[in-house]
């Protein structure tokens, strides 16, 4: 029986290795900057950023986990850390008392506002400014295309506008 594996070409293997290296190293670069400058990891920053984007500052934990691309368990541990720091509170959801929602506190909002400038500078340094505007737009489009194939649910959660529609449908 012949091997039916669709092996990568030499060029595809080289591009895959470069992409895999990017996927492994970029999160560490972003995490290092956030820990150094803000005392937050990237997941915690994403949680605060998501909460800060919602008009009332509150999101069901299940929706927030989806937005932050983490499991409910991982989210619960991170929110516990953020609660101890006074950045987030948890409470029963008003619409469904069986559900729990997370809310950003004034201190949490101040934290994300203070952390954002250095984070944006690092994102620009590491990614945006390394590319032309056209390349960056192409990269974003390609990333969304791959996400549609690899993890379509996470793709819709990455969109802040989609998150807002999930929280408060029109």
Short descriptors:
single chain, 170 residues, mainly alpha, Arc Repressor Mutant, subunit A, 3 strands, disordered C terminus
Task: Please characterize this protein's 3D structure.
The structure is a single chain. The chain is mainly α and 170 residues long. α2 crosses α5 and α3 crosses α4. The longest helix is centred in the N-terminal third of the chain and has 29 residues. It has one domain: Arc Repressor Mutant, subunit A (Orthogonal Bundle). The chain has a 3-stranded antiparallel beta sheet.
Q: Any idea what the shape is?
A: globular
Helical fraction equals: 55-70%
Which consecutive residue ranges, at least 5 long each, have pLDDT under 50?
A: 163-170
Structural class: mainly alpha
Number of helices: 8
Reported for the largest beta sheet, the result is: 3 strands, antiparallel
What's the short version?
This protein has 170 residues and is mainly alpha-helical. The chain is 68% helix and 8% strand. The radius of gyration is 19 Å and the shape is globular.
Write the layout of secondary structure elements.
Elements: H1 10-38, H2 42-53, E1 58-60, H3 61-67, H4 72-84, E2 88-92, E3 100-104, H5 106-126, H6 133-150, H7 152-158, H8 160-167
Antiparallel strand pairs: 1-3, 2-3
Helix pairs in contact: 1-5, 2-5, 3-4, 6-7
């Amino acid at each position: 029986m012949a091997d039916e594996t669709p092996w990568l070409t030499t060029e595809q293997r080289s591009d895959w290795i470069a992409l895999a290296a990017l996927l492994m190293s970029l999160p560490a670069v972003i995490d290092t900057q956030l820990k150094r400058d803000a005392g937050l990891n990237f997941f915690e920053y994403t949680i605060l950023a998501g909460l800060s984007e919602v008009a009332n500052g509150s999101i069901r934990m299940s929706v927030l986990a989806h937005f932050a691309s983490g499991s409910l368990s991982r989210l619960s541990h991170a929110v516990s850390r953020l609660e101890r720091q006074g950045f987030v509170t948890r409470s029963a959801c008003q619409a469904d008392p069986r559900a729990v929602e997370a809310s950003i506190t004034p201190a949490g909002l101040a934290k994300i506002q203070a952390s954002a400038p250095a984070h944006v500078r690092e994102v620009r340094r590491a990614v945006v400014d390394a590319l032309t505007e056209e390349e960056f737009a192409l990269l974003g489009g390609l990333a969304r295309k791959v996400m549609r194939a690899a993890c379509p649910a996470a793709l819709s959660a990455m969109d802040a506008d989609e998150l807002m529609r999930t929280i408060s449908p029109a």
